[in-house]
Amino acid sequence: MVNRMTNQTTPKKHRFNIIDKIVLVLIVAIAVSTFLLIDPFKWFYEEKIIEDRTVLYTVEIRGVTKKDSGSLSEGDEAILITKGADVGKIVKLTRLQSSLWQVNQNADQMIMMRNPEKDTVYITIEIACTYQEGVGYFINDRQLFVGENMKLKFTMFDATGECVSIMEKE
Amino acid sequence: MRKENVKKPKINLMDIVVILLILVCIGSIVLRAVATEEKYSQREYRLHFQIDEIKSSSFEYFDGHSGEIVKIKENGRVIGVLGDEFSRGVAIHTYTEDMEDGTKVEHKVPYPAPKGENGYSEEMCSISGYILVLGNKSNGGIFLDGTLYLEPDQTLEIVTEHITATIRITGVSEK
């Protein structure tokens, strides 16, 4: 704007009218409502109870040679290969003759084939873990599940077996 | 006579930005409200499933575990909670045979009928049961939260607090 008397330029004044105020109030109201609806800090105050527990999990390992099977004994260390190496203790061992389900000759029935040369070993391992209610048991961030394959390291050999049972130690 | 300048309303960039912002905010709130309403209009259904081939001893991790949260293993998405009716049946092994003409033929072979052995058993069985889910029924399947569609014959790898298994959806029914 030019002042005709002095011929000087004066800075343009910002007019803060009622419409601007309404728009501002509207924006703030909408922002606050959206914030309350989305609740972005929900994760922060939601309680996540994690407790230390001791579990006994049993792994079924098939096709173990008699030599390897014989090298196992209760009280031995069993290392579960996770991100780290989690050491547990073998508390129970059960050896059965190794078996494998196969389709029969007529392809109309599954039959159990036994192998007397090898063992199926059920190894129950005691290990410290964490428990999260409604989620499950964790060993070093790895969740324990029945039905999942696990890699284990024993004194004499390494093996992969299927977890067939999880029980909390009383 | 001096002609007075008529002040023309000018719309600047800032006005457009503010208007757009308001429209986006109103739009989001409307969408959210619609989604919330849809969520509240969802009903509880039974998502029936079958596990065709599983160790007989696994049955105890379904039966008696009613109310345990069921998630999709791949992404951890919650789909519902375990129901309270489970039954054990004959397991079926499925395998594919490559034929000489290059085609593939699928065979289904039954296991011996399970006796219901637990513990250290190699016995196999099938498990039938249901997951209690919240959603909207549609074309024989179900929409969970309006984003995940599950339908009969679909297979899913699920996890509960104790077990992981591959289920085959067999149907949806009212709770």
Q: What would you note in describing this structure?
A:
The complex is a heterodimer of chains A (170) and B (175). Chain A contains three helices and ten strands. Chain A has helices spanning 18-38, 42-45, 66-71; strands at 2-3, 8-9, 50-65, 77-81, 85-103, 110-132, 136-139, 142-143, 149-153, 158-168. With 175 residues, chain B is α+β, with helices and mostly antiparallel strands. Chain B starts with 12 loop residues before the first helix and ends with a strand. Helices cover 16% and strands 44% of the residues of chain B. Chain B has one helix at 13-40, and strands spanning 43-55, 69-72, 78-82, 87-89, 92-98, 104-110, 124-138, 141-144, 148-150, 155-159, 164-174. Chain B contains one helix and eleven strands. In chain B, the strands form two sheets. In chain B, strands 1-7-3-2-10-11 form a six-stranded antiparallel β-barrel. In chain B, strand 8 (141-144) and strand 9 form a beta hairpin. The longest helix of chain B is centred in the N-terminal third of the chain and has 28 residues, at 13-40.
What can be said about this structure in brief?
The complex is a heterodimer of chains A (170) and B (175). Chain A is α+β, with helices and mostly antiparallel strands and 170 residues long.
N- and C-termini, Cα separation of chain A: 86 Å
Largest sheet of chain A: 6 strands, antiparallel, barrel
Low-pLDDT parts of chain B are: none
Which range best describes the helical content of chain A: under 10%, 10-25%, 25-40%, 40-55%, 55-70% or over 70%?
Answer: 10-25%
Q: Give the tally of β-strands of chain A.
A: 10
Q: List how many beta strands of chain B DSSP finds.
A: 11
Instruction: Give unreliable regions of chain A as ranges.
Output: none
Topology, pairings included?
The complex is a heterodimer of chains A (170) and B (175).
Chain A lengths: L1 E2 L4 E2 L8 H21 L3 H4 L4 E16 H6 L5 E5 L3 E19 L6 E23 L3 E4 L2 E2 L5 E5 L4 E11 L2
Antiparallel strand pairs in A: 1-2, 3-6, 3-10, 4-5, 4-9, 5-6, 6-7, 7-8, 9-10
Chain B lengths: L12 H28 L2 E13 L13 E4 L5 E5 L4 E3 L2 E7 L5 E7 L13 E15 L2 E4 L3 E3 L4 E5 L4 E11 L1
